[in-house]
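Recall the central idea of this unit: under ordinary conditions, the amino acid sequence of a chain determines the structure it adopts. In this exercise we apply that idea directly, starting from the sequence alone.
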Amino acid sequence: MEQFIKKNINIILAIFILIQPIIDLLTGLCLHVFNINFTVGIIIRIMFLFFISIITLFTFKKKKILIPYFIIGIYFIFYIIGVLLFKNNNLFQELQGLIKVFYFPILFISLYSIKDEIRISSLTLLTTLFLYLFLIFIPLILGIGFKSYEITKAGTLGFFNSANEISGIISLLTPVMLIVFITSKKIIPILIFSIIYLVVILMVGTKTPLLSLGITLIMAILYFWNYSFKEKKYKNIIISFILIIISVLSLIIIIPKTNFYKNIKTHLDYLKLDNITEVFTDKELIDHFIFSQRLTFLEKKSTIYNKAPLYQQLFGIGYINNKKVTKLIEIDYFDILYSHGIIGFIIYFSLVIYIIYKVLNKAKKLNFETQMFHTSFLLIIILSFFTGHIITAPSVSLLVVIIILSLIEKSKKDLLFASKFLNIGGIEIAQVNLLNSLDYNKYNVTLILEEKKGSLLSKLNANVKVKELKVSTCKIVVLRKIINLSRQIIFKIFNYHNYDFSCCYTTYSYSCNKIAQIASINNAFYVHSDYNNVYKNELEFKEFFDSRKITNYKHLIFVSNESKNSFLKYYKELEKKTKVINNLIDVEEIKNKSKENVSETKPKNKKLFVFVGRLDDSSKKLKRAINLVKEIKEINLWIIGDGPDRKMYEDYTKKLKLTDRITFTGKKNNPYPYMIKADYIILTSDYEGFPVTYLEALTLNKDIITTIRTSDELIDMKDYAHIIEKDDKKMVNEVKDILKENRKKKKIDLSKYQKKRLEELEKIFNE
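Accordingly, the structure predicted from this sequence is:
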């Protein structure tokens, strides 16, 4: 259970965030329809707070938070004693108020202590915002639901209870909406979302969302203009300025038809004012119109507080006065001060301010995303003062915690790799070697597989989180598409741009390609082969890469110069994105494993050729190697591997009566004891990228005979291998010459090259 929680804490948190609209909907129904004061929302949120506190202490073993827990617990005892001494009634309501207010610092302390484990996608937050908007929009269209205000003012709130809380949630998530909009290229969904958003904030009747939208847009425009000035894109500034003017003129036309405008007019009529500027001529008018009489409530609450005994001034006057619920000021800072006294206020804000200080000290570097999260943070401070119900309402304070924690630059980068499976194969071995070479003090690594299978799974570093995202194989086409689309949407909601780096490692996999593009803006597409040999004409070649939306990737990584150059023949405009970084191998492991004993013995008085790879004739063309054995009597051949054409190769071997000189060993988890016995490692392929077998052979100081001319950023194989022609007759003559002359190629120490490749990859990870 502990491991499950550790691996899935982000999913658990994300699901709880996503069900907030449903919880608030049930709360509204409990209060307005069933007249139940202690709602299902309070029960669920208290259970969640208890769960987070427990797993923080015992699953993640963050024992240091016992100190703030203990301090808050001691305060709770003194608060309850005060209620019993000075009120002796309504203990239940007092406890409810106590828990609602301290929900935020307890949750903040808990989640901050496991901050490095927390990674909530901006799309999770946007989906939550959409659910709130949708659950207001539909009742609005149908003309049902609760009113935002009991009397006088207009406004609709769907079936939610508190206009201030829902307005606060919409306001704080508005900057997140812009984050997703800027990074998305899907215009139609953005347009639909924007229409629903604008209709709701203009019809809900409160000033807060519109004010927050204004602040958010100003912060976004300032960032955009600053960026455009630096990049000298002055045309963009002019265009944006024109769009701003058009938007303002449109709002001037639309606003008079909204509940927002009706409420302002109603308020002005009530105050007997002709013009909104008259509001600022009198202190009482400012209080009534701008602060909705919060300054009056503040004065009344202050009077009650000052008359209270010293004990209550220290530990709080609570929420009940003369057997009646005291009207909240709806300025969070003062509500906390008076309801929980000087000591409660000090405990509350000393903990909160300390954590915020720690967060800001580790804040991410400025980009558009962090600019918008800083805007949300600014709104938290402003709205807590002007409208309240931000840090004192559990429904809002959960989002406050997530927003503030989103500002932190994590101590570890989050990396995601997507692959098909981990059966034995060149790409799969390279994938495992790469993941096992990473420094897990610097990186959290997730590997997503289409199929969580393969003998190489057991070879993975234990720190890698392995997850499966299956592709449906349902025979009913429509159902299969629905299932796959649903899985893609769910993955997107939880993981959209949620990683510091993502990589489609299995080049040919369409599913892995989608995962990598969803998971991070800093993404890479790894090309392991020369696809000019797979697709013989430009149309097919471009169709393959265009279907992968190759232009959306930030990095295109090739294992060889040849595969990169083939790609650039058709995609010259993407040259700046390309980089050659060959696969990684574990040099020491290969050497150690080569010492293992195997039953096969090297034939005497024969030259032993060893092939290692997948038995797939479309690329490997292993008949060429078999023909070499037929034509050159002093050669024996071991074929290590399996694949779809194994039987065809075995039948061909029998036909040529070579079964005594050619051995099919099948797939081997450890091929190195066979390779170490070889005189030559042989590859007779039509095409390859930069075979991992080359690197393994070089590690074992084995001579290589190959039909593939290839090079990477550090190694040109013509210096280390015997390159032969693909024509059968020429091949035989060339191999005879190699054997006759006993030509030896240069040796190489791959360890230093491994380090350089890893450094290049880490530069990409850390962007």
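The first helix runs from residue 2 to 18.
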